Amino acid sequence: MSRVSRRTVVPLLLGLVVAAGIGLYLFQPWKAFTDTTVNESLPTASAPKAQEEQQGQPRSESAGATDGEAPMTSTRAKALAEGHFVTHEHDTSGTARTVRLADGGQVLRLEGLKTSEGPDVRVYLSPRAADSAKAGLGDGAVELGKLKGNLGNQNYSVPAGTDLSTFRSAVIWCARFSVSFGAADLAPVTS
User: Fold this and answer.
1) Burial 3-32 (b: 16+ CB within 10 A, else e)
2) Rg of the chain's alpha carbons, rounded to an integer?
3) What pTM was computed for the model?
């Protein structure tokens, strides 16, 4: 090769290597072939029986338990809203449920989640309906954290003081590319 060709080829090859490195960092294509399964139990809070008795309060049970049905205690979580995921940019299925814990804390629980892995995927509560969240999260969306795994059952703490009634959907969102993998409308649970 002549000197002119080397001067042209070396920077070109160096540029291609840098571009490939940036592409790998941004797209993380290996994640298309990997899965991360997370199976968390729903968090529970229970006051020890001895502590309740010391305070002069018997363990509380809700009225209305029928034979064969476990009585609800004051330590039981309560489902507030739920919905099923719909697919946006990646096949996504499962159920999203907002839950008030016995200690007053709130969580978003994803059950039977199945979606794709991706770079910088996060979980949000959005004031928009699931179909509208495909175009964006909307003003007032609350990030609950990075997606723990693309498969399974997982819990995301909702910040204290958050009014869950102002949110219409749970969204699996890729922050790097500003796209929704999928979303679930959160309809109030009636019981």
Assistant:
1) eeeeeeeeeeeeeeeeeeeeeeeeeeeeee
2) 23
3) 0.71
